[in-house]
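Format is sequence with structure; example below:
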Amino acid sequence: MRGLLLLAALSVVAGCSRSAEEHLVLARDAVYVHRPQTALREYRVALDAVDKDSSPAGQALRAEALRGAADTYYLELRDVAKAVGVYRELLAQAPESPQALEAHVLLADILHHNYHDLRGAIAELTAAVARKPARAPDLSYDICKLYFELGDYQQCTIESEKLVQSYPASPRVPDALFLAGQAYAMQDGMREQAERAFQAVAERFPTSELAPHALFELGKQRAEGGDASGAIKAWVAALPHHPDPKLVQAAIAHTRERIAQTTPAGLGQAAAFAKGEGPPHKARENQAKTSVEAAGGTAAEAAKEHGD
């Protein structure tokens, strides 16, 4: 019995003699083998070891231990409330550390998805972007999306335009322009701005997967503004690469049908049909092209599709 007690005492002494770095290694190893409570104990001991250490090395170890403990609560134990508390402690004690930058991003994710606090998430991401990290364009785009989700479309367009201007070479530029177009489209009196944003995506990034979507949205904006021919032109341009060509063809066909019904010739033919008369022999020649013909199909193929 005495031997066991002595062994336990020696173990405690040995544990106390370990450095903060060693406890951090033990904590990471415990996380690796899915022993989160053991990891948290090791992180606490590491924090105690550097409690009075104000040197740069001590501050770095403190930041690493706090980040590790917060991640363990969040990712391993799913204890969101405790994770938030430790992330905030990290921001208070080591605000300029690399770990603090990631703490802002992780807090934004927690506030967004666990607490539905979109403005709180925006504040955390804004603080992260202010650090000017390499991933600043991505974080800026996340801010744009959060404003869109909030329904603050005006601020969404402001942030999107800021991203385009601040990071002109970023792959996020077409995403930001497309989102700006969507946000403008949600605001009264902003149709021209929406059209310019969608057109910019199509013209500046013609090989982007967003280009056909931008052309389709451009067509919708033109159609709503009364420019039916401009709408069809945009949709025809979108058709070859759009992932849902039937959707585009339907928009073209619907708009062409509306043009035919509202032109004098179309109205005359409608009146003639109402009296039981047949259509003029050259009616097919004067009729607007169908969506199939607009996409390069023949008149015969179009007639087959519509059962002519």
Remarks:
- Residues 178 and 267 are 38 Å apart (CA to CA).
- The chain has a mean pLDDT of 86.
- The first helix runs from residue 2 to 17.
- The radius of gyration is 31 Å.
